């Protein structure tokens, strides 16, 4: 197998030391949508993709859970069957219950009602333990630590790109409904008590734009997915 990933025709790949920052920089310069930047590091896999939304940011943010579902589908196909992959609303990627990576996003415009010029979605996933005492952080894990040592980072990145494109085409053709259903089935802590910022309550579900529904003693709070946007580096 080649050390360089091969992407579907609609995507263009290139290496970058910091894929998230570089993707934001390329997007500002007007690069084409579908640019995938990646770093196949020895202990961490990083990747970022540039989107050119045609809908307001509130709807375009569906690309964050869409890319997460693509990752789950890709790793689920490559990992041993006993490995459980779940997706947290805040972007955490969980493997057998512990955090192994993170999704993140940045956009040219943070107004949910505006159509942004660009949207970048990125992820990183830990391959190897970051310390000699991984048992001291039981809520954090790695791919290899959970029995995925046979999963090649190149193969995983290629599979993610394919599964992400399938999900994107379905989103274009059928709207957010199928993605909403699939993500909900993979959601971490759905129905449990969680804390987000200063709020602690029951994670009762998501709205049509994947906003978090958090029920406290007094009310149900709707936290929009745009809350997860990071400032572009």
Automatic annotation (TrEMBL):
Q: Which residues form a coiled coil?
A: none
Q: Determine if Ligase is one of this entry's keywords.
A: yes
Its Enzyme Commission number(s) read: 6.3.4.15
Keyword rRNA-binding attached: no
Assigned keywords, A-Z = Ligase
The residue ranges of the BPL/LPL catalytic domain are 7-184
Domain DUF4444 as annotated: residue spans:
190-230
Against SUPFAM superfamilies, the record matches this protein to: Class II aaRS and biotin synthetases (SSF55681)
Q: What class of enzyme is it?
A: ligase
Q: Which GO terms describe its molecular function?
A: biotin--[biotin carboxyl-carrier protein] ligase activity
Top-level taxonomic group:
Bacteria
Q: Which Pfam families does the record match to this protein?
A: BPL_LplA_LipB_2, DUF4444
Q: What is this protein's record name?
A: Bifunctional ligase/repressor BirA
**What lineage does UniProt assign to this protein's organism?**
Bacteria, Pseudomonadati, Pseudomonadota, Alphaproteobacteria, Rhodobacterales
By which gene is this protein encoded? Answer: birA_1
């Amino acid at each position: 197998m080649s050390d360089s990933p091969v992407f579907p025709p609609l995507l263009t790949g290139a290496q970058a030391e910091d894929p998230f920052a570089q993707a934001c920089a390329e997007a500002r310069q007007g690069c084409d949508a579908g640019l995938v930047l990646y770093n196949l590091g020895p202990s961490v896999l990083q990747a970022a993709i540039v989107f050119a939304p045609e809908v307001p940011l509130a709807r375009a943010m569906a690309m964050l859970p869409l890319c997460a579902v693509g990752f789950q589908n890709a790793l689920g196909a490559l990992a041993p069957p006993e490995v459980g992959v779940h997706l947290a609303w805040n972007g955490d990627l969980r493997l057998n219950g512990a955090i192994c990576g993170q999704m993140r996003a940045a956009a040219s415009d943070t107004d949910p009602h505006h159509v942004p010029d660009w949207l970048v979605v990125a992820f990183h996933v830990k391959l190897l333990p970051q310390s000699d005492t991984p048992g001291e952080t039981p809520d954090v894990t790695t791919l290899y630590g959970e029995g995925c040592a046979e999963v090649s980072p190149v193969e995983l990145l290629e599979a993610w790109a394919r599964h992400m494109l399938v999900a994107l085409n379905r989103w274009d053709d059928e709207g957010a409904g199928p993605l909403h259903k699939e993500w909900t089935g993979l959601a971490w802590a759905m129905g449990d008590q969680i804390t987000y910022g200063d709020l602690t309550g029951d994670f009762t579900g998501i709205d049509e734009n994947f906003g978090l529904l958090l029920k406290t003693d007094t009310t149900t709070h709707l936290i929009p997915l745009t809350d997860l946007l990071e400032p572009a580096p």
